[in-house]
Structures are given as C-alpha cells and as structure tokens.
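User: Is it possible to get a 3D structure for a protein together with its bound compound? The compound here is S-adenosyl-L-homocysteine. I've pasted both below.
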Amino acid sequence: METAGTDFDGRQFKNPEEMWQEQVGDTHKKCQWYRDGVSYWEGVEATVDGVLGGYGRVNDADIKASEQFLKTLLSELFVDGGRNRHLVALDCGSGIGRVTQNLLIRYFNEVDLLEPVSHFLDAAHDSLVHENPTASDVHKATNFFCAPLQEFMPDAGRYDVIWIQWCIGHLPDDDFVSFFKRAKIGLKPGGYFVLKENTAKSGFVLDKEDRSITRSDLYLKELFGQCGLHLYKSKDQRGFPKELFGVKMYALTTDVPKVVSKSGRKVQANRPGVIK
Ligand code: SAH
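Assistant: Yes, that's possible. Here is the predicted structure of the complex:
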C-alpha cells in the first residue's frame, strides 16, 4: 500500500511496509513488539481511566454510541432482534471488562473475555463475577481467556458477535489478517464482528511507546478485504474531545448479510459488497 505514515516524533515512513519491516521485520523483533505492548499495559492501573488512556470521561459517550450501533445491528441481522436466540459475544482485548460490563452483558446471554494482561483480566473477573449483584444465569460472563489476539483460536461456531475495541492496533498487518481469518471460525452462521477503533486521517501513525499503530479508514478497509470480510455498516463516534483521534465503528460479516425485513423475512442486503 502506497500511503505514507508517521510516528509521534514526526518521523516519516514511505509506506506501511517500510515501517513494519523496521519494527517487526524478523521473529525476534516481532516478539519484542508484542512483549513491549503487553509490558506497557502491565504498568497501567486497572481502572476505566487507565484503559482509556486518562480519558475515563469518554466512557459514557462511547457506550451510548456503541449501544445504538449494536441495537441497529441486532434488529437488522437477527430475527426478532435476537430475542429468541441464546446470544453469545466475545470481548477482545477486553481490558478490565468495561465494554462487557456496561454494554455486552445486557444484550448477550453469555460473554467471554479475551485479554493478555492478567491484572486487567483479574479486575474484570472480580467485577463481573464476584462483585456483580445483577449477574444471573441468563446474562453472565462465562470464560476469561488470558491470551493475546494473535494466539487466540476460538471454539467453532460459538459467537454471535465478536467485539474488538481499541486493541487491533497492537497487531501488525499479517497477524491482523490471520486473527480475523481464525476468528471467523468462531462465529455462528449470521454472526458478525464489531470493530471499534481510532482512525488516522491518512496512512498510519505509529506509537512506539505502547507498540501499536492507528490506521486510516482506507488502510483498515484494505485489510478487511484481505480478511475476506464484508463491510456491512460503519458509523463515526461523536462527542469525543477534539484532540483525540477520530473513532469509527465497523460491522463486518463473512458473507453478504441477509437483512431481516419488517415482516421478519430475510432479504439480501444490496450494499455494500466485498471490499477490494
Ligand atoms: N477494549 C477495552 C480495553 C482497551 S485498552 C476497552 O475498550 O475498555 C487496550 C487493551 O488492549 C488493553 O487491555 C491491552 O492489554 C490490550 N492488548 C494489548 N495488546 C494486545 C494483544 N496483542 N491482543 C489483545 N489485546 C491486547
């Protein structure tokens, strides 16, 4: 891809290939990239403010917009909005379980969490299992997997929705693509991914401190194409402080989705097609 990028010191890269070659060009460098990424988060306190990089105050706006997006998807893609279905979600790079606790647990009967940093996952377990008076057999956090995305292999056909928020930037392009290809196996027929992520205005921005990159919308779409995913819908997050990156939500399906019509019949969506 011929799109230039930068790091936070203003250093320019001709294209992503040049940057990836330098950062993760051999096995040793790639191990170091992932080790440094996890170490960064191991030094962050297990609070909402911690996982949101000091911007705990955006939590409410984030959850509100995500809920709107999810509600639309559930009603468009599942008969009865999924009400007659045992709904299961996976929260990827879940941190302390902020998204599960504030959103997913209310809509899904079961939620699994996947997170490589153990003190975050422990905090998620404490709040979702030990300290949660509203936990019930019909809405519960079931599995807590302590693993990174690049190593995760889901059980086949377990999930209706795989939610990936603010963590995919830790994966270089090759692992991004292989993660989605493996994760697809974890989706039920008709299931989909929701990716919520920062977006760069163009190209990419490398963060050498936490070992992640912020990709542009175009860059992400190019990768979705390589994963064989269809972009069903996307939406911009609104109401965040101006100094932050723009944030987008993407709903991604493995096939051209059948949209549920008002009469409850499934009809073929006429847009959009495969991203090339
Ligand atoms: N999604 C959560 C947490 C965001 S903070 C939320 O929105 O509240 C970013 C998270 O990504 C941290 O919990 C961090 O530990 C996790 N992370 C870092 N590298 C990762 C990797 N390789 N795979 C999965 N998660 C990773």
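Residues 11-253 form a domain with the Rossmann fold fold (CATH 3.40.50.150). The longest strand covers residues 187-199.
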